[in-house]
């Protein structure tokens, strides 16, 4: 019986002109978003690859220079976009694309898309995730708001129940029927996305990509399922179709528009972050004067020099086999990098606290559970961004220390001398490896739990509510 | 007229009885107040941050005075001394934050090459900027249309569905007056809320009472009127409440969500902005090549631009600051074209949106409010130009020290130029937006009234 109800809902949905128009619209948007996402992914990726190539070539073909000059000449790290970011670009548009890596300091990641788009970008970006997270739920609402109310208004529910079917069976039948209809709209776009992804992407990261895409599809399936169940439940408990529709739309607006903004802003208000100017000044202060103010930099270098003279058993700097300048440089880099790392860790911890609030609200609002989950799987969330930042910093530190070591080995009077281009070609280049799925998953536990709790809780509680009520 | 007021007061009683609607209005009032609170605290926070900058500069000067106790080479000071170009918000920014969270509101400057300092961003949480600002402009542009839809989607249809319309129209009342009174009542509720929130916001943010008060009220009023016009059209179609709700929300979705995001794609495709990164890469090449070039070549290029220093001593030393700063500046000049292209590209995108925002009154209202508050792209570009001028002034201040070999004393810190820039509203943009909104309102009301006239109201 449940199957025939499901079949009936499916067929009558397909016959419904309103649904047809809406689903064609949503499908068209999904396909367009996929293609646009693909195109923008390719251009941005090419631009960044080209830029990375350019700076790498420039680095390798430098003229003869003193190593410390090269440390200031520095390098750039460009953030490659993750393969799945064509589905969900996450925070990509709001983080910068490149960071300048140089001696003594850690720079900000600059040139974000958001700075180049004016205020338009604030209305939302047309991506697959945007359609899936906001528009498909709307489609579901329009599809399901009359699930029970319409039957009641036309008097068919009584007829149905007189056949000996339970309300629970009717509800499940409807849920299954609507799920099929929704799958019919969403599946082609996701299939296209999968084809696009695997058509050109190198198969090296294939397994990881398949895993991410699989979980991506699965999470959205759960997300849509709970919207369908929710809409059917609301339709059952509301008195009229109109009331059901208004309630559902109200919930959509609250969940998809008001709450995410409000929690993000509340988080920023509750846990204020330090400005770059303040942070740079603090870092400078600590690096110069020691973390506890006891050992200023010149004292540290004097001690270092004394230690060196003792170690090599000589009485003057000229007789040392190594360059004191290089060693001091290397020590102070280690020190300032430590200070920087501490401050960046604090800053990121503040941001994570801000974002955590939003993640917890995911327990109340499924939109705020699917959003971090989707971004995390697509490799475009805050954690992946921090991973890049840290990789860039690790490279910067290693590069600068290599250069300092080169300077050290030049011995006394190094300032007058230069090393030739051959030296620079030996240095490793920056190559970013995005973290695997196994790294991302533990960070996504909270949204996964929230989404599952919603799906199970809603099915259990909602259907209990339906079967216990006197609806007919 | 008496009948109009009778219907109007009847609507008021009806509205008070409908708990849901009162609740909705209260909710919107509350979110509006939160928006004002958030906007003002956000701007207050930015102001707070800006006030710490002179303190940071003082700390820096104190440190330099210890490091260089006597008169010293100004080159050292120019290298180690940091100052800030600051972008103070206008009081109105609290009501419409615009891009102030994405674009940096201060720039840290040293005497070195400008371009790689100009684009450094502040610390930002990308998740937070992704979610966007919850300011009064957001409440007005995004949420007020929804209130209007909730209040008006069943303007006539509910009466018809409950069978009251037949009774009502059996009386000597013209259908136009019925629709008019109902619309007027809802208009009074919505505009009352919008004005109340606006006035509270203005008082809270302590905006100066000038012409902009009227412009803001005009913009928000016309924007609300536009949505009432859309509701009028849908009412005139005389369909069921469910149809009306779905259609109105569809229009909302189209104008507030879909058109802006599609326009964003279109504009980005029409005006690909030359990546700023190209500029910084090129500048780095130029500056670092400065070390390797013969000094006379660098100085001759510099003197061609600044002949007043031509008679200074020829450089024979291995390193001297005036040569160092000369090639830093030449590095900036080498990318002047790219810098201009970058800024122009952004401006062109903005201009194109300005032209096309007639497509969506939501974009128009948002950009007009941002223009009024001076929180949009043109203001940011003005700030960047002002920061550039400040960098020029710094160079002009240091050059006599460097080229005439004047020693820098402790008293000279106080003589150094400082920078301040306060957002100016772009009134002309806001007024143009007002005109375009007026046009949109005219179109929807004309269409609605024509429809009403063409199809007399059917009680059933």
Your description of this structure?
The complex is a heterodimer of chains A (472) and B (460). The mean pLDDT of chain A is 86. Chain A starts with a helix and ends with a helix. In chain A, 46% of the residues are buried. The longest helix of chain A is centred in the first third of the chain and has 44 residues. Chain A is elongated. Chain A contains 18 helices and three strands. Chain A has a three-stranded antiparallel beta sheet with strand order 1-2-3. Chain B is mainly α and 460 residues long. In chain B, 73% of the residues lie in helices and 3% in strands. In chain B, the strands form two sheets. Chain B has a three-stranded mixed beta sheet, with helices on both faces. Chain B has a two-stranded antiparallel sheet with strand order 1-4. The radius of gyration of chain B is 30 Å and the shape is elongated. The mean pLDDT of chain B is 90.
Keywords:
heterodimer; A: 472 residues; mainly alpha; 3-stranded antiparallel β-sheet; 3 strands; elongated; B: 460 residues; 3-stranded mixed β-sheet; two-stranded antiparallel ribbon; 19 helices
What is the succession of H and E elements of chain A?
A: HHHEEEHHHHHHHHHHHHHHH
Structural Rg of chain A: 29 Å
Shape of chain B: elongated
Spatial sequence of strands, sheet with the most strands of chain B: 3-2-5
Average pLDDT confidence of chain A is 86
Radius of gyration of chain B: 30 Å
Discrete helix count of chain B: 19
Question: What topology does this entry show?
Answer:
The complex is a heterodimer of chains A (472) and B (460).
Chain A: H1 2-15, H2 17-60, H3 67-73, E1 75-78, E2 98-101, E3 106-110, H4 113-116, H5 128-144, H6 149-154, H7 156-162, H8 167-200, H9 206-237, H10 241-270, H11 276-289, H12 297-312, H13 324-361, H14 367-378, H15 382-409, H16 421-425, H17 437-440, H18 445-468
Chain B: H1 2-17, H2 19-67, E1 72-73, H3 74-80, E2 83-88, E3 106-109, H4 115-118, H5 126-131, H6 136-152, H7 157-161, H8 164-170, H9 175-205, H10 211-237, H11 241-270, H12 276-292, H13 295-305, H14 321-334, H15 336-356, H16 361-373, H17 377-403, E4 407-408, H18 412-415, E5 421-422, H19 427-454
Parallel strand pairs in B: 2-5
Antiparallel strand pairs in B: 1-4, 2-3
Helix pairs in contact in B: 1-9, 2-6, 2-9, 6-9, 6-10, 6-11, 6-16, 9-10, 10-11, 10-16, 10-19, 11-15, 12-14, 13-14, 16-19
